[in-house]
Amino acid sequence: MTEHFPILVPGANGNGGRLKVTAPYDGSPAGSVANAGADDVERALATAHALYRDRGGWLPGAERIAVLERTAALMQERAEALALEAAREGGKPLVDSRVEVARAIDGVKNCAELLRHEGGVEVPMGIDAASAGRLAFTHREPMGVVVAISAFNHPLNLIVHQVGPAIAAGCPVIVKPAEDTPLSCMGFVNLLREAGLPEAWCQALVVDDTALAEGLATDPRVGFLSFIGSARVGWTLRSRLAPGTRCALEHGGAAPVLVAADADLDHALPLVARAGLYHAGQVCVSVQRVYAHEAVMDDVVAGLAAAAAAMTVGDPTLEDTAVGPLIRPAEVDRVEAWVAEAVAGGGAVATGGDRLSDTCFAPTIVAPPDPGVRLGREEVFGPVIAVYPYRDLEQAMAAANDLPFAFQAAVFTRDIDTAMAAYRGLDASAVMINDHTAFRVDWMPFAGLRQSGLGVGGIPYTYRDMTIEKLMVLRSGAL
């Protein structure tokens, strides 16, 4: 049974047509969402802006905490249904979608806890003649209207990361989910409302007009833009933001992993294979480039190939599926072309290398392609890992750093000096030691550097971005 969602904007016209959502695995109907028109976008912005300007009507912190706590409880009650919905519409296997839902529930709880721990600070006064007789402190206030534009690959948890901190901060928020996967978002917004959040404080819509979406993001009434998606779109939107609008952009990269000669391969290779191939590689920090010391190069390729070949590819709603479809058939065509180019550039396919259907591509290990091909220089966002040999650590780090992207990286080694040298030498916002590049917990900083993004994600960091630390200075002769 499929579900239809109206535009979640109070008073919306809803005459912009209907977006039909299909399962990426087999094209079966997954649900539908009403498209918003220009009037609906304007109504959403006007509603959110009016809420923010009415300071007397801001939601008290206790009410925000209660809404978030009740939302987490509702999500826990319906966790299996949420996981199945995410798996159907996004293609991430059910086993991984359950993990996503558990993370999302914990993320909502994290948002509620922020109000207990993320306060202002005292600014020292009375320490010289200029500051004598004064007391100063800061208090957090909402930044303004938040517009959140999201991606398809984590259809529930990404929304929680963008919407949850906005609610915790007291910001009215308008969220536009990815057109491929809007159902989980709409369901989450309805859960917030069921938990007691007034409708106008979190509005959700989809649009089929790029100009309308850009107008939503760049409207001068927007205080903060949260964008997760392609670098091309993200940087374009940033260049067109209204003066004063702040933003955070999360794009992606071609995550590098260094495997030293002394690495524990039995530990490392299953982690690396899974981190590169789960969700068909459609994760912004999926392992894409592995640099293996020449002494273990053959063992690394063979081990990754064995792990990849053992992964069951198919229907993401089935319990035993390890790798599901790519989000659209056109992505299968693209990944196939990239692998063919890598082979033409000297790479050898150790396993996979071909499409299994119009929607699925085999988990693939290529070693070693020319580093100049697209697989070596751009984000593949598909189930493909490239493996390269190296002779010394400096050479490996130079190759890993030789891209305009920098996000998370990893090194596998038993030597503390190798680990520390990699931590210092890799261009990355995070370096994992004996763990894979896709490791994340939602309270840690998560930041793309250079073309990989702008600002720092992670729930507490997003909350801080969405607040103003407002200063009060008291002057008194009694001080």
Strand order of the largest sheet: 13-14-15-12-11-17-18
Mean pLDDT: 96
N→C terminal distance: 68 Å
Counted up, domains total 2
The CATH superfamily name of the largest domain is Aldehyde Dehydrogenase, Chain A, domain 1
The main β sheet shows up as: 7 strands, mixed
Would you kindly provide a written description of the structure presented here, covering whatever features stand out?
There is one protein chain. The protein has helices at 38-53, 61-77, 79-90, 94-117, 157-169, 183-194, 210-218, 231-239, 265-277, 297-309, 329-344, 374-377, 393-401, 416-425, 459-465; strands spanning 3-5, 18-22, 29-34, 122-123, 134-142, 145-149, 173-176, 202-204, 222-228, 246-250, 255-259, 287-293, 348-351, 364-367, 384-390, 405-406, 408-412, 430-433, 449-450, 453-454, 467-475. The protein is α/β, with parallel strands linked by helices and 479 residues long. It has two domains: 3-251 and 452-472, 3-Layer(aba) Sandwich (Aldehyde Dehydrogenase, Chain A, domain 1), CATH 3.40.605; 255-440, 3-Layer(aba) Sandwich (Aldehyde Dehydrogenase, Chain A, domain 2). The strands form five sheets. It has a seven-stranded mixed sheet with strand order 13-14-15-12-11-17-18, sandwiched between helices. Strands 8-7-6-9-10-20 form a six-stranded mixed sheet, sandwiched between helices. Helix 2 (61-77) packs antiparallel against helix 4. The model has no long low-confidence stretch (mean pLDDT 96).
